[in-house]
Amino acid sequence: MILNDETVKKIKATVPIYPQRRSCILPALTLAYWQEGHLNDDIYREISDILDLKTVDVASAASFYTMFPKAPVGKYYIQVCHNISCALLGADSLIDYLAQKLGVKLGETTEDGLFTVVTVECLGSCTTAPVMQINNDYYENLTREKVDQILEDLRKQG
Amino acid sequence: MSEIKLTINGREIVATKGMTILDVALENGIDIPTFCWHPKLKTVGACRICLVEIEKWPKLQVSCATDATDGMVVFTNSDRVVKARQGVIEFILLNHPLDCPTCDKGGECPLQNVVYKYGIDRARTIEPRQRFIVNEDSTFDDLPIGPEIIRNQNRCIHCFRCTRMVEEVFEEDDLGSYNRGHITEILPPPGREIRNLYSGNVVEYCPVGALTNRDFRYKVRVWLTEQKKTICNFCPDGCNLTAWTFRDKIYRTTSRRNDRVDDGFICDIGRYGYQFVHHPDRLTSPMIRRGGELVECTWDEVYDAIICKLKSIKEKLGPEGVASLVGEDCSNEDYYVIGKFLRSVVGSNSIDHRLHRKKKLSYGEDLEKLGIVGTNLTIDDLESPDLFVIVGSDLHSENPISALRLLKAKRNNDARLVLINPVPSRLSRSGTEYIHKCNTEVQLITCLARIIVREKLYNADETGLDDRQIEKFLNDTDDFTIENVSDASGISKDDLTLLARQIAEAKRAVFITGRHVSLHYRRDMVLTALFNLALITNNLRGDPKGILALRIGSNNRGCYLFGMRPDRLPINRRVDEKDSLSSDWLTGVSDRKGADTIDILRQIEESKVELTFAVGTDPVTSYPDYNYICSTLTKLDFLVVADLYLTETAKIADVVLPLSSCMETSGSFCNWEGRVQIFEQVVNPISLSRPAWQIFTDLAARLEVEFGYKSGEDVFNEFAPMISGDTKLNFRTVPESGICVPSATPVNRSAGLQPVSVRAPELDQKHEYVLITGNGDHHIGRNRTTRSESLNRFQSEPYVGLSERTANELALSDGDLVKVENDFGKIVCVVKYIDGLRDDVVWIPDNFPEISANVLKNREIEIDMVSLVKV
Amino acid sequence: MELKVLFKYTDDPDQYKMDTYISHGGYKAWEKVLKEIKPDEVIEIVKQSGVRGRGGAGFPAGVKWGFVPKDSPKPKYLVCNGDESEPGTCKDRVLMENDPHRVVEGMAISSYAIGAHHAFIYIRGEFVFPAERMRGAIEEAYEKGFLGKDILGTGYDLEMTVHTGGGAYICGEETALLNSLEGKPGMSRIRPPFPAIEGLYASPTVVNNVETLANVPEIINRGADWYAGMGTEKSKGTRIFCLSGHVKKPGNYELELGTPLRHLIYDLGGGILDDKELKAVIPGGSSTPVLTPDQIDVPMDFESVAEIGSMLGSCGVIVMHEDTCMVWAATRLAYFYMHESCGKCTPCRMGTQWMYQILSRIESGEGRPEDMDHLLSACDNIEGQTLCPLGDAAAMPVRSFAKTFREEFEYHIEHKKCMVQNSFPSFGQ
Ligand SMILES: Cc1cc2nc3c(=O)[nH]c(=O)nc-3n(C[C@H](O)[C@H](O)[C@H](O)COP(=O)(O)O)c2cc1C
Ligand code: SF4
Ligand code: SF4
Ligand code: FES
Ligand code: FES
Fold first, then answer.
1. Sign (positive/negative) of CA torsion B199, B200, B203, B204?
2. Residues 6+ positions from C346 with CB-CB distance below 8 Å
3. Angstrom distances, CA of residue B817 to CA of B792, B811, B813, B829, B854
C-alpha cells in the first residue's frame, strides 16, 4: 500500500460530502499527490479500491489533469509560470536561471532529489508576475535575489 | 407527439417534434456525414463533421445535437457547410496517417468515405504527423490492448465511440481515454486488457482503423469479400450476423443490426465463434467401424450400413427399436426432417433433445397450465421494465445480448437489477447480487412473497387476491419465516426485507431465470414460487412484465417448435393432436407417445432400443452421468453419430457422419422469443460433410420415401405455412423481423396462489462441496467455441473455481493442482480463486476438452457433491 | 478612479475572519434574505441590479437564476466558479483569499434564491491557500449557524463544499467544470441541455463566477438601484481589472464599469514600464482580441469594448510595450490553448495544434509565405465551430494578432528573424 492511513482516512471522509461517489476522485487524487508528491497506476488502483470505483475512471481522470506529476519528482516541485504576463516580465530568463543554477534541464530532478523544475501555464497571479509555485506555495514578484533566497531556504530545510 | 414542418435543402419535410435535424435528414434519405454520433450511443456533438446551416442562425450547428423545429430552414450542403466540413477533415488529417493502403479499415472506412466526398485535393498541412510511438521501426505503432484488439492510436480521430460504448452500453470498465487534447489516447486501465464479452464491437464501431482485431486484420481486403446473412447460434438470443467470405472461406462475422433482436451489438462469441467452421478437427468423411476401428468410407457405404441395420432392427423390435437424441444447436430444418424421418418413415416417436437425470426435471403440466413455461415477452420488451429479478442465471454469459437490454432499461428508465444466484455472475457489475446457499431458491422467493404480504405491500384489487387466499398462503408457507429462510439461505434478514420492498415497489418487474434454475432439481417449484411472487406483486402479465424462464441451448426453442420430444409434433402439438396440423406426412404417424431420453436409455439397457441416432449431441461429455451414459450407449447394437467433430460420443459410434454446420446450408433458427429467423448458406459444406436435413432426406430416399428437399430453403418452405399460418410465406418472403411464434399459453392469473413445498434434495452426504458448472469466459458449450482460436485467447483451459478461503483451508493457492472427486469419478485441474464464491461451492467452467464435469455426476442423485484433495 | 465595493475591506488582514467580516456588516444580507425576502424576490432584485456575469460572458446573473425550473423534482445546485485560469486574470483569488466570507454569503444567497441546498465552490487546484481560506470561512459559517441545517431557525438547509481542481484551464468552462466536479475528465458538454436544466448530476444548476456572487450581499444590503447606479447603462456596477505586463504598477484595481482603459494603464498603473512605447493591450484576458495604442481610450464596459472588436472578458488587462514581438506573443498563447484543449471536439483539438505548429515555425524563422493564409483559415475553421467556447478563445487572439500585426508576421517569414526582438526586463534587473 502506498497511501498511508491518514490519507486513506481523509479520502474516505470525502465520501459523505458528495451526492455521487465519483466526485471523490479529484479530492482523492489531490490527497494522494500531497502525500506522495506524484501519482501513478498503483495509486489509481488503491484509490479505486478505497472508493469502490472503477480504476479506469480514476486513471482517466488523473491523466486529464496536468497539475499532478505522473512520475516521482524532487521534494520541491518548482512550477514556473511561462504564460504571457509572466513571460513579459522575464519568466523565460527565470526558467533559464533556475535550470542553470540547479544544473538540471526542465523536468529533471537534481541529484540530491530536492528540486525539479517544470514550466506551467498561468497560475492566476499575473499581477505579481513572474510567479512560481513550489509544492503548494506561491512565490510572486520574483527577482534573482528572491529566487536565490528561496532555494537557499529550501535547501536548508532539506 | 406533435408534427412539425421544416425545409431541408429546399425540400419540405414533415417530421416529429423531438427529432434532431440529423434524424430527419437520415429518415428522408439526405446524407449528412457523422463520426461521433451513433444511434446506439448518447449524442456528444464532438466531431463537428455533421455541421449544417440553419437560416437565421448565425453559426453552423451540429445536426446530430440540434432539434428540428417547426419552420426551420436547413441546408446540409451549402458552400458554407461544405467549407466547414472540409475544415474539419483538414483538421482530422493533420495527424491521421494516410496509410489507407495498409489499413484494414480501407474500403469500409467512414473517414475514407467522407474524405473521398468532401476532400481537398492538396494538403496544406506540412507538419510531420503526430505518432504515438509503440515501435520506432514501424509507423503502424500497433499495440495489442486485449486478447483480440489491436490499437493504432495514430489513426484515432477521437470520436470516443469505443469508450462511450464500453461505459454506456456494456457498463464495462476496461477501456478509457487518457490525457487530453491532441495527445488523448485510448487504452485499457493500467495493467489490464480490454477483454469484456462485447469487446469486438469497438472494432466494428470505430470509424477508422484505430481498433482492429487479430481475427480479421491483414487477411483479406473487404472489397474482395462476399457478404451473407446469417444468424448466430451460440445462445438463444439469435443475433443477426453478416458473414464475410472470400473463396469459400469465412473471414469474419459482424453484426447485422436488427433493433428488435440484437440492437446492433453482438458478443464476442458470436463474432469469433465462426472459426469453428474451418477448424482442422472438422470431420471430412463418413466413417464406419471395421475391425473395431473407425475408418473412412463413402456416403453410400454408411447409408447402406444404416439402412441395413434399420431394417433388421425394425423387423426384430418394431419401429420403437429405433430412437434419436438430438442436440439443441441444430437448425429448425434439421429438426423438422429428423422428426419427419423418424416418425413417418421409421415409425418411432422416440426422440428427445433433453439430457435428463433419472428424476425428471420437469416443468410439469401444471406449470404449463399456469402459462409460465415459454414466454410472450420479446427482447425489445426488456427495455421498459423498472425492475429485473434474475434468479439462478449468469445472464451475461448465457444470453449476452439480452443482458444488454437490461442495462438499456437501466439507462433509460433507471431500472433496478437484482440478482439472486448461487454463484457470482458478471452482471452483478450493474446491479445488486445476493449469493445464496445452493438450493434454497424456493424458500427465498416464497419468503419474499411472504414479506410483501405481511407488510401489506400488495394491491388486493389489482391482484384479485382475497384475504382467505392470503391467509391460506401464509399458513401453508409458515416454515418460510424470514428467520428460517435467512438461516437457510445465508441472506441477511435486512437484505430479504429490502429486496421484498424493492420488488413490491416496482411498477413493471420481469423475473428471469436461467441455467441454474433449468438444471435445478425442483425447477417446477422454483417457478411456482416465482409465479406466486409475480402474482402477489401484480407482475404476472400486462406491460412488459412477467416471468421469463430462459433455457440453455441456442435452438432449444426450435426443438420445442419442431417436436423434438416423444410427445410432440411440429409447433409443439401433442402427438394425439396431429389432425390439427394439415400435413400429409403426419397421417401415418403413431399417436402413441414415444420414449424420452430416460426411457430411451432404459430401453437400450433392456435391449428394446438397438439403433440410436445422436445428431449434433455429445452425451458422453454432457449427460449428467458419465459412467452410465458410456455403458449404456456401448450396449447399443448400432450407434449412429452425426456431428461436426469426432466427439467422445462419436468415438464409440458404429458409424460417424460428418455434419455440415449452419454456415454450410440455409435454414432457420428460433430464438428464445419464439422468433424464427432465416439464414443463408455462407460457404459450401466442408469436405464431404452434409447437413442433417440432407442426411435424413437421403436415408428416407433409400427407404423409398422421397422428401424432395434440395436445400434447407425447401424444408423451410414446407413448414413455413404451418408455423406462420400464412400459406404464401416462404424463405424469400420472410420479413426482417422473422416469424414470431407465440410460445406460452396466456398466463393464468385466476389460478391463484399455488402451493409450494420444498423437498430436501437427495444428495451424497459424504462430500462437503456442491459442484456447480457454467460457462467459462468467452465460451458456450463444449465443442465449438473451444475450436475458435480467438475465443481461446480469452480462456483456453479449464480450472476449478474455489473461494480463496476454501482454497486456503486446503492449503491451495491460485494455480495449484487440485483433485475434485466423489464416488463416481475425479477430475484434476488447477485452482482459481473466484471472488464472491461461497465457501461450500466448487465452480467449474465446463467447456474444455481437458476435463468434463459429468464424470462427477450421477443421474440418480439430484445435487452433485464433491470432495477436494490437494495434489 | 478606484471605486471599492468588493475591495472595500480586502486590505484588512483580518477580513478573512468571521468576526471582522461581521463587524464590517457581513452576513446581514444573508439574514435579511432568509427572514424577509422570498426566493423569487431575491432573483428579482438581482435582475434589477443588472449585475452581469464576471466569468467572461457577461450574462445577467438574475436572468440565469430565473432559468432554474421551480417544479423540477430534482435537487438543485449552485456552483461558484473559482477556477480562474484565464491568463491575465487573478481577481477571484484576491476575493477568496482576503474576503472569503463575502463569497460564502453571496453563494448562500444565490442558493436560497434558486432553491439549492448544496452549493459547491470549484477552485483551481493550484490555489491551495485560497481554498484553505474558503474552507476556513465555510467552517466558521457552519459554526455560526449561517450554513447547515435549519439556518437561523428558518428551516432552510444549505451545505457548502469546496472542491479543488487538478490543473486544467478548460474546467473554468461551466460544463467542463461540472464534469470535473462529477469526478470525470473536464471535458465540455454539448448544450442544450443547459446547466440550469441539467447541470451537476443531471440536476438544475447555476454556475456563477466568484466575483459575480461576491457582489450579491451588497446588492441585497444597499438595493438594486444603488448597484444599478454604478457603471454604464448596460454594464452596471464595478469590476476588478487585473493589470499585468509592461506597466509600472501592476495590480488588481476595482473600477466602475465604463472607466477608460487609458486611465487604468496610465493613471493607476503608472504608465508603461521603463517609459517605453505602448504597443498592444489585451483587454479582457488572453482570449480577447488585442487592442492597439490608438484604441485605449475605450471605456471599459461590455458594449464599448465589443464595439471596437474585442471583449471585456474577464478583465485581465495585459500590456505589452514596443519591445514585444507579436509573433512571439501569439505563439505563447497558441501553445497555451493547445495545452488546454480538452480534446473532445475536432476543430479545437486539432486546430489548436495546427495553429501552434504554424506559429512556432513562423516564430523560429521557418515560416512560408502561405502560412499566414493557412493560419487565418485555421482560425475560420475553429471559430464558431467548436463544441464549447474554448475554440473561439483560442482562435480569436491568434487571428487578432495576425491581422493587427500582420507585417511583423510577414517580416518573420521573409527575413527569418524578428522585427523587434523581445527585450523584456530580465527578471531581477
Ligand atoms: C475556456 C473557458 C474558460 C473559462 N474559465 C472561467 C473561469 O476560470 N472562471 C469563471 O468564472 N468563468 C470561466 N468561464 C466562463 C464560464 O463558462 C461561465 O460562463 C461562468 O462561470 C459563468 O459565471 P458568470 O455568469 O458569473 O460569469 C470560462 C469559459 C470558457 C469557455
Ligand atoms: S479508437 Fe476509434 S472509436 Fe475509439 S475514439 Fe478513436 S476513432 Fe473513435
Ligand atoms: S472547444 Fe476545445 S475545449 Fe471545448 S470541447 Fe472542443 S476540444 Fe474541448
Ligand atoms: S501569466 Fe503567469 S500567473 Fe498568469
Ligand atoms: S456527428 Fe455530429 S458532432 Fe459528430
1. negative
2. B46, B47, B48, B49, B88, B91, B92, B157, B158
3. 21, 11, 9, 5, 19
Q: Which atom of ligand 1 is nearest to the CA of C213?
A: 26
Topology at the third CATH level for domain B287-356+571-740: Rossmann fold (3.40.50)
Q: What percent of chain B has pLDDT over 70?
A: 99
* Residues C173 and C212 reside in one and the same domain: yes
Q: Give the whole-angstrom CA distance, residue B106 versus residue B100.
A: 6
Alpha-carbon radius of gyration of chain B: 29
Ligand 3 centroid – CA B46 distance (Å): 8
Query: Is residue C360 domain-shared with residue C305, that is, in the same domain?
Result: no
> What CATH number has the domain bearing residue C371?
1.20.1440.230
> Helix B626-635 to helix B597-605 angle, to the nearest 10 degrees?
60
Per-residue pLDDT tens for B221-230? Answer: 999 999 999 9
Cα C209 from Cα B280, distance rounded (Å): 69
> Rounded CA gap, B261 and B241, in Å?
11
ipTM > 0.85, yes or no: yes
Contact of B41 with chain C, judged by CB distance below 8 Å, is answered with no
Query: Amino acid letter at B492?
Result: S
Strands B73-75 and B143-144, how do they pair?
unpaired
Helix or strand run (H / E) with residue B230? strand B226-231
Q: Are B396 and B529 in contact (CB under 8 A)?
A: no
Cis upstream peptide for B798 (omega within 30°): no
Chain Cα centroid distance, residue A102 = 18
- Contacts B175 to A, Cβ<8 Å: 56
- Report d(CA A51, CA A63) in Å as an integer: 18
Interface A-C, measured as beta-carbon pairs within 8 A, has a size of 184
Ligand 4 site, residue A30, Cβ cutoff 6 A: no
Chains adjacent to C (≥3 CB pairs closer than 8 angstroms)? A, B
Is position C395 within any domain? yes
**Cα–Cα nearest to B198, from B234, B176, B161, B169:** B169
Q: Does ligand 5 come within 6 angstroms of the Cβ of B49?
A: yes
**B432 burial type by CB count under 10 A (0-12 exposed, 13-18 middle, 19+ buried):** middle
Looking at chain C, the number of H-run helices and the number of E-run strands are 18, 10
Decide if B581 contacts B589 (C-beta within 8 A).
Answer: no
| Cα B171 to chain centroid, rounded | 18
* H or E element in which residue B74 lies: strand B73-75
Q: Per-residue pLDDT averaged across B410-425, rounded?
A: 96
In degrees and rounded to multiples of 5, residue C68 shows phi and psi of -70, 125
Q: Are residues A89 and A59 in the same domain?
A: no
Closest ligand to C-alpha of residue C342 is 3
Q: Which ligand is nearest to the CA of C56?
A: 1
Angle at CA B118, nearest 5°, toward B115 and B120?
A: 80
C-alpha cell at C343: 480534446
Strand, coil or helix: what is B318?
A: coil
Residue whose C-alpha is closest to residue C159's, from C85, C206, C107, C97: C107
The answer to whether the CB of B76 falls within 8 A of the CB of B32 is yes
**Of all residues in chain B, what percent carry a pLDDT higher than 90?**
85
Closest atom, ligand 1, to C-alpha of C340: 1
Tens-place pLDDT, residues A107-146: 999 999 999 999 999 999 999 999 999 999 999 999 999 9
CB-based pocket (< 6 A), ligand 1: C 53-57, 59, 61, 81, 83-86, 170, 172-174, 207-209, 212, 388-390, 393
**Based on the domain organization, do C256 and C132 belong to the same domain?**
no
Q: Are residues C194 and C298 in the same domain?
A: no
Residue A126 sits in a domain whose CATH number is 3.40.30.10
